[in-house]
């Protein structure tokens, strides 16, 4: 559960269900927060903020307690907004924002919540909220890493520019993406992406793109086929689709599977006697069959629309006067796909951690580890 407005005092989150005894430092979370802030194409706000987490519950002496973890990330920009974003009644009413921006939550949110100052909607709809998600994802990353599960993301397209990674190994892709401020593992494409962002910026326009999130080390059997809302592919799709500006999600081959024959879609099953485990020569299913993990890497992709705040705004109508207007431009990012890829990592981390704890339980990290070892022994003996 997260709360907080973009220009309010801070973003907060409460995380319930992380077992006791997990080593956790603010620095672990800050590293991911910093990754979300980088990326060529970010706007002026990122020069104001330096996101840092403060734990106010659930962590003591560098270890989790098994109690809810409460965390906060101050909005440094709030200092310029105290007269407009404080919780107490205003001394002087701030000017209402009555001009909804096409492509944002402004109009539908104003209609639904019966607010005529659209700031009451856009402050929470803002992608600023994703800093809190990334902080929660970083907590889940620590938990999953302790159990041998890793999650990384890389940008696969910005505008018309797409990456070509051939059959590069996953750990190479991860390391190359980590070293790139566009989270792009293909240096040639990265250069072209930078040029495309610069060109869009000069043209007063914005760019979308796609990214891929990969989770390795998850055991088979997370999620379940027995009920629609327990299927992990559905849960991952919801988690990724919930990120601001995401308009499409794929797992494995995704939409491409629809145009292939069955023999070119499904992954054959083999048995590796030395490892006493079933293996797959291909991973076109993206690690999920029947709503369950199958032991192969989980591979999800998401498509982000171009940011809706345009220098050359689209026509709209004022919610009070009902008159048409051309929106005034406020500062904006040109491209936030690299940042969204870090948020995508967080959403996959949270979803996989949730599925793992649901399957194995455990109040302490030791108990969770023993449960996982026991389950792995069951799989080897199958
Ligand atoms: C956002 C608008 C911009 C972005 C913001 C998301 O903020 P501002 O209105 O203050 O210029 O910078 O993103 C963040 C603050 C962030 O931390 O990612 C929006 O309307 O969604």
Description:
The chain has 382 residues and is an alpha+beta fold. The chain has one domain: Chorismate synthase AroC (Chorismate synthase, AroC fold, 4-Layer Sandwich). The protein is 34% helix and 18% strand. The chain has eleven helices and 17 strands. The chain has a five-stranded antiparallel beta sheet. A four-stranded antiparallel beta sheet has the order 1-2-6-3, covered by helices on one side. Strands 4-5 form a two-stranded antiparallel ribbon. Helix 4 packs across helix 5 (119-125) and helix 9 packs antiparallel against helix 10. The longest helix is centred in the C-terminal third of the chain and has 24 residues, at 337-360. It is globular. It starts with a strand and ends with a helix. The structure holds ligand EPS. Residues 6, 43, 45, 49, 77, 126-128, 131, 331, 333 line the site of ligand EPS.
Which descriptors apply to this entry?
single chain, 382 residues, alpha+beta, Chorismate synthase, AroC fold, five-stranded antiparallel beta sheet, four-stranded antiparallel beta sheet, 11 helices, 34% helix, globular, binds ligand EPS
Strand content: 15-25%
Number of domains: 1
How much helix, percentage-wise, in residues? 25-40%
CATH class: Alpha Beta
CATH domain topology:
Chorismate synthase, AroC fold
**Residue-averaged pLDDT:** 95
Architecture (CATH level 2) name: 4-Layer Sandwich
Total number of helical segments? Answer: 11
Q: Taking strands numbered 1, 2, ... along the chain, how are they ordered across the largest sheet?
A: 8-7-9-15-10
Hetero groups in this structure are: ligand EPS
Q: Low-confidence segments, ≥5 residues, pLDDT <50?
A: none
Give the helix/strand class: alpha+beta
**Topology as a string of helices (H) and strands (E):** EEHHEEEEHHHHEEHHEHEEEEEEEEHH
Main sheet: strands, sense, barrel: 5 strands, antiparallel
């Amino acid at each position: 559960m997260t709360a907080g407005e973009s220009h309010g005092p801070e973003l907060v989150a409460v995380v319930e269900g992380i077992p006791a005894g997990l080593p956790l430092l603010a620095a672990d979370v800050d590293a991911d927060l910093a990754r979300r802030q980088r990326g060529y194409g970010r706007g002026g706000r990122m020069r104001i903020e330096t996101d840092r987490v403060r734990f106010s519950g659930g962590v003591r002496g560098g270890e989790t307690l098994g109690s809810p973890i409460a965390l906060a990330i101050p909005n440094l920009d709030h200092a310029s907004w105290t007269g407009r974003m404080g919780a107490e009644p205003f001394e002087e009413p701030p000017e209402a924002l009555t001009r909804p921006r096409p492509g944002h939550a402004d109009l539908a949110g104003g209609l639904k919540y019966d607010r005529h100052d659209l700031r009451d909607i856009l402050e929470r709809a803002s992608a600023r909220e994703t800093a809190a998600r990334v902080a929660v994802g970083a907590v889940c990353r620590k938990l999953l890493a302790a159990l041998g599960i890793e999650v990384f993301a890389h940008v696969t397209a910005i505008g018309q520019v797409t990456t070509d990674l051939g059959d590069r190994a996953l750990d190479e892709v991860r390391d190359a993406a980590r070293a790139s401020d566009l989270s792009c593992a293909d240096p040639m494409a990265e250069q072209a992406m930078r040029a495309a962002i610069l060109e869009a910026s000069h043209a007063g326009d914005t760019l979308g793109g796609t990214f891929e999130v990969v989770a390795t080390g998850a055991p088979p059997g997370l999620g379940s086929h027995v009920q629609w809302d327990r299927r992990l592919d559905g849960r991952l799709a919801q988690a990724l689709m919930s990120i601001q500006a995401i308009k499409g999600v794929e797992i494995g081959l995704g939409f491409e599977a629809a145009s292939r024959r069955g023999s070119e879609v499904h992954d054959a099953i083999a048995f590796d006697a030395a490892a006493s485990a079933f293996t797959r020569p291909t991973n076109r299913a993206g690690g999920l069959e029947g709503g369950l993990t199958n032991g192969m890497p989980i591979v999800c992709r998401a498509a982000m629309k171009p940011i809706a705040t345009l220098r050359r705004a689209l026509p709209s109508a004022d919610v009070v006067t009902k008159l048409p207007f051309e929106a005034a431009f406020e500062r904006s990012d040109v491209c936030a796909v690299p940042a969204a890829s870090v948020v995508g990592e967080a959403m996959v981390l949270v979803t996989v951690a949730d599925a793992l704890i649901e399957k194995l339980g455990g109040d302490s990290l030791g108990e969770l580890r023993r449960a996982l070892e026991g389950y792995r022994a069951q799989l080897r003996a199958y």
